[in-house]
Amino acid sequence: MDAKIAPSYTSTIENGMISDPSNILEESSHPLQGTGTPAPALQPLIPPDDDYTHVPAPTPLILPHELVERIFLLLDTKSVLRSRLVNREFNAIIQSSTSVQYYLACEAAGVIDNPQSPLSYGERLEALKQREDAWRKLKPAFETTIKTNDLPSALYDLSAGNLFRLDKNRKELHYCRLPSSPQDSPQWFRILGYGPSWSGSIVGMGMAVYEHDLVVSVISDAADDVDNADMPQHTLYLVLVKLSTGEYHPLARYPKIQVQRSFSALPYISVKIVGDNLALVVHDRLPHGSKLFIFDWKTGHRRLKHHAPWDAYENSIPVFVSPEILLVPNRIYSCFEIWHLFPSLPNLIPPGQILSLETPVTYYHNIASMESHGELGPFLHSMPYFPPRPFFPSSESSIVTINLLLQSFDNRPAFRKAYKLVIHRRALLDIIQEWTSPSHPEQRSLPTWPQNKVTVDKVADPDDGSVRLAAQSELCSLVEGDLPQTPDYLTLANSPTSPTSHKSADSSSPDSASSTPQIYSLLLVQWANWGPPVSRWFRVNKTHQGWNNQSIGQRFAFVDPNPSDTTKCIVGVADFNLHNVEMMAQLGREGQDNGGNEGKNEENEELEILDHKGGFSEEVCMGLKCVVHHAPGEYDFDRVLMDEERLLGFKIHPEGRAESIKVLYFG
């Protein structure tokens, strides 16, 4: 097993595979990677030596050790490590306390403890060490195979230890609970709940299993009252099902919610759910084009309908950066729209766009798809449906990955270029907070300002009479010059001229009483102003759309072609855990034996340049580091997916269906 810090990602990923023979693990070509020493096993963080001033040893506290441990568990990691330097008593307690050591190990590994686990802290700590060791060495605890039953599938998804798939006719949704021990026998189950006379097609699905035991299917069915061929022939619905029972979800007031009429029988769909908010991206044939919907799935209330220009959201997959922040890729304007989803109750402010973050400029290519992924996703309050495992990847510490596929304007396949962008979720939140701060000095120097036209309705619920807000918006213009003085978006919802309309739960019903449309401006931040220090790019080829579940927590998986046998591959994992990166950097500095600490962080602070092979029209720099591991064996995979405990290797038939699925379990 060979592991190093990956310095330059100019290698190519074929079908999600790094295929450059001088790849990111080649020691001789990239001396900055280190010495090739395997990454160290999980170990307690070392006390920081920066900004340390000696503190005279105080008089020992006469407190029970259990109480001192409790206090340490309330501190942040850095404070706990500094406390080791205070006196021998504190150091002894920290070193001997299993609960404190487990807390530090969780912080280092980027996981959160599951208080519902029946294991002791000692057992949890040992399980965490074994897990980290298995992922570092990429040596699975066991391997098994899932039967595919020779059923062609239109779509696969992976969530909460379950593999979901549609049958080729898009009539049934199947799922398989993935094995956690060699004795488990994976079985496929069918989710019912659409009724015996249902004649439509499933066009999309979304899950919030850990938070709500919820599976949402988006179905397209023939419209009932079509008068002529120029009218939309189909209707889109959300169907809300409780996974554990297969029945309609009991928390959903309307388990079947109408979204809109559709011209296409199979529009493009993407669904994401956090808390009460369900984000739905729909791309239909013109004149409908692309829309973003935000629903309160429990009440059926539509909080937002945003009309994007043309096909801006085609092949666009959004991601929740936090419970209230949604990132929506816009491929027409080459940017990431940032939407603030204010709490539904008290519903004082409807969802609204607050920022746009541009990708690197590309003049000679059209962005064909922008697919975001970030698991585990954030949650609003708790995850009551967590299984009794001792820990889970931390959402706050996880990475967000975005697959970008570029193509020539004449859509010739030979001119396609694809990339994977990786950013830490926490860094992305910091950037959003920084650029939406009113005191940011560069806000008014930005060259272009998108403007949205917004109408806010006050909607009375027909069942309980409560008044909620519903917004409709659309991008109306791009303005050059200084930031114009426009109405604050926060004032739109409280406009005294906004009347109350009485609408049914059918969210597609016409808007009868609306406020006067108002226009507000947005920040559009260029890539060079926000992206380089926090990002890492991979150049990829032939990215397979719909296979986006390749990351979890702070790792993402890929397959590397075996240069000596093209029918086989080697599995690889890129680890963006900052603690592991620093440990590898420390080993590299020790291996170089450069003496002293002078300039030891220079490598980490230096930006690298992506060799994008002409995909972008500007220099693309990147500063995020990672450690790459390769498995010792070889496999017969075409694709690989990843969840908290496993890698799933797929062998794909030329017709596009999965011939075999192998599970590699790491714990």
From TrEMBL:
It comes from Amanita muscaria (strain Koide BX008). CDD domains: F-box_SF (cd09917). Residues 16-36, 488-513 are annotated as: Disordered. SUPFAM superfamilies: F-box domain. Residues 497-513 have a biased composition (Low complexity). This is F-box domain-containing protein. Residues 57-103 form the F-box domain.
